C-alpha cells in the first residue's frame, strides 16, 4: 500500500508537487499561526519556516532520493540555526520593532550556507 502511494506520488512532476505542497503548507501554517499564535510575527514566521522546511525535507527524500541521514542532517542544521535566530529575536527585541525579524532571517540564510558547506564537505569524503 505504501509503495503504491509512493509510486503514484512520484508520477507527479517534481516542480508541480513541490509547488502544490509548499502552497498547502504555507496556507496551513499561516492559518494556524493566525488562529493560535496571535499577532507575534516571529512565531508565525517560525511556524511557516518549520512547515516549509519539513515539506522540502520530504520532497528531497522522495524525489531526489537523498539519503535519510543526509536529509535529516540538513533539516537539523536549518531548524537549529533558524531556531537560534528566533531565540535571539525573542530575547533582545520586541515585536513592535521591524528589526525583530532580522535575527531569524539571518539565521535562515546562515542555515542555507552552513548546510551547503556541510554537503560539500561530506561529498568530498
Our count of helices gives 5
Estimated radius of gyration:
16 Å
Shape: flat
Find the structural class using helix and strand composition.
Answer: mainly alpha
Succession of helices and strands: HHHHH
Number of strands: 0
Report, as a whole number of angstroms, the end-to-end distance. 37 Å
Largest sheet: none
Task: Provide the low-confidence segments as ranges.
Answer: none
Helix content: over 70%
Q: Report the β-strand fraction as a percent range.
A: under 5%
Mean pLDDT: 81
Task: Set out the fold topology.
Blueprint: H1 2-11, H2 14-36, H3 41-62, H4 68-92, H5 102-124
Helix pairs in contact: 2-3, 3-4, 4-5
